[in-house]
Amino acid sequence: MRDDQSLALLVVDVQNDFCPGGALPVPNGDQVVPVLNRLASHASALGFPVYASRDWHPANSRHFAVNGGEWPVHCVPGTMGARLHADLDLPPGALLVTKDVGPDGDGYSAFEGTIAGRGSLAADLRARGVTELVIGGLATDYCVLASALDGRREGFDVVVVSDAVRAVEKTPGDSARAVAKMEAAGVRFLPSSAVFAADLFQD
Q1: Are 53 and 10 within 8 A, CB to CB?
Q2: How many helices and strands in the chain, by DSSP H and E?
Q3: Catalytic residue among 30, 143, 150, 163
Q4: Which CATH class is domain 7-197?
Q5: Is 181 a catalytic residue?
Q6: What span, in angstroms and rounded, lies between the C-alpha atoms of 53 and 97?
Q7: 19, 30, 99, 106: which is the annotated catalytic residue?
Q8: pLDDT tens for residues 56-96?
Q9: Beta 157-166 vs 188-190: how paired, if at all?
Q10: Which of 56, 140, 141, 196 has the fewest CB within 10 Å, making it most exposed?
């Protein structure tokens, strides 16, 4: 049985611009919200920390096609698109990880972000004694992929919740390739039902 502070939940980029109607919608991206709400509620009730990352691109970001990058303008601070999805129900005390506040980076990984007054995500996880990170959110083939791989590089065990992620699939097969990369790095995939049934999220 794991120590009650050994595990954390990371909700990746469930923002309006990545959901239907947004500037860069992930197909069926909003379907992750109910699953993540259940995970977050259960994790919080057991005393596990919950983190939520957000893209936070300045309007002059080189990430955007209008500035020579790859993507449409999205998740610019102060816009409706940058807000977390209205139905995402994070528990009190959830920690917000803000990534890519500068113009030059892509900011795919939550490990590139910072927590106000606390520093980096990796440092905060270590300060809390976290050894295992459970991840869900958007999108499987970009920010979830980058966050999961960085989590492994930082020395954490990583579980991706398979029914709490959705993929962009910019190129057919991107999702499958992303899953293969994560599995090769030692990331485990479990459905939310198995997360609750296993010793994950158990007191």
Answers
A1: yes
A2: 5, 8
A3: 143
A4: alpha beta
A5: no
A6: 4
A7: 99
A8: 999 999 999 999 989 999 999 999 999 999 999 999 999 99
A9: parallel
A10: 196
pLDDT digits (tens, 9 = 90+) for 172-183: 999 999 999 999
How large is the greatest C-alpha to C-alpha distance in the chain, in angstroms? 51
| Domain boundaries along the sequence of the chain | 7-197
Residue 143 annotated in active site = yes
Going by C-alpha positions, the residue among 79, 81, 66 that lies closest to residue 26 is: 81
Residue 13 falls in the annotated catalytic set: yes
Spatial distance between the Cα atoms of 129 and 151, rounded to a whole number of angstroms: 14
Return d(Cα 105, Cα 146) in angstroms, integer. 13
Model pTM score: 0.94
Q: What are phi and psi of 178, to 5 degrees?
A: -65, -45
Residue found under tokens 């528990």: 91
Q: CB under 8 Å to 15, separation ≥6 — which residues?
A: 22, 54, 55, 75, 81, 82, 83, 84, 85, 138
Give Cβ neighbours of residue 87 (< 8 Å, ≥ 6 apart): 30, 33, 34, 37
How far is Cα 198 from Cα 194, in angstroms, rounded to an integer? 6
Decide the pairing of beta strands 95-99 and 119-120.
Answer: unpaired
